[in-house]
Amino acid sequence: MSDTRNWLVTGAGGMLAQDVLARLADAGIPAVAVTRADLDITDPAAVRAVLSEHRPAVVVNCAAWTAVDDAETREDEALRINGDGARNLAEACRDLGAVLLHVSTDYVFPGDAEKPYAEDAPTGPRSAYGRTKLAGEQAVLTTLPDSGFVVRTAWLYGAGGGNFVRTMIKLEGVKDTLDVVDDQRGQPTWTADLADRLVRLGQGALAGTAPAGVYHGTSGGETTWFGLTRAVFEQLGADRDRVRPTTSEAFVRPAPRPAYSVLGHDRWTAAGIEPIRDWREALAEAFPALLAAERG
User: Fold this and answer.
1) Starting from the edge strand earliest in sequence, which strands make up the sheet with 148-153, in order?
2) Per-residue pLDDT tens for 74-133?
């Protein structure tokens, strides 16, 4: 018999959390959606109070400071959310005996590898954002060695919020040509696919079949932002040659972007769960909803 105790999802107004909540509904799992207005995860007493009230079997933490560039000058603020907030949730989950699924990022790695980063590869963030997210990972894994799950993801897109794919859909309609970075490699990942794996992982945790620790929740395959944009144009039936390659030097930003964000997925086998499919297949399935969301 499946475990139907309720789950609690933080950051419920965000793009990923919306798909997690939809996936939980599909699975018949009751869920409590907690937005930033409902809960300040940097407040330990508030976290304990909310979790004590709802007593979830699983907490999915989608709440995060995600303004990568702003974190360079506001690292203390980002750390309170990404580091201290994660610790507060982990401590409350420990006290209640709940599972914590904590969403993290490829930015915990330096981005200079030549083969996919394994789940146990040495970390080395080069940005303030990456440092704050790594602090959150460490808090979860230290506080919940047997029931804490860190799921790193990257290059997320979905219908429920702003993202690179939706921006490219918009720009295709207003730009004759687009210059897009071709020297950063990663794995475009549909939030619906990641949401599915998060739910499966939580179910596995409750069933005792998924070991705690680090997992990589990104699509299979790899490409560049340039390659992804050309794929978007193909989905639109537009001429992909209108997309032109350029380098990161053309788009200098405060926070350094990883040149290589490809993640390995070996740990899913231990949990008996298939890794996420190839990014091209996912994009094709996701595209009607993305187009509808962007063009109304």
Assistant:
1) 31-34, 7-10, 58-61, 99-105, 148-153, 213-216
2) 999 999 999 999 999 999 999 999 999 999 999 999 999 999 999 999 999 999 999 999
Architecture of domain 7-158+189-220+262-273: 3-Layer(aba) Sandwich (3.40)
**CB of 65 within 8 A of CB of 12?**
no
Amino acid at 265: H
Confidence of residue 173 (pLDDT cuts 50, 70, 90): very high
User: Strand, helix or coil at 126?
Assistant: coil
The burial class, CB within 10 Å (0-12 / 13-18 / 19+), for 47 is: buried
Confidence of residue 5 (pLDDT cuts 50, 70, 90): confident
Active site positions, annotated: 129
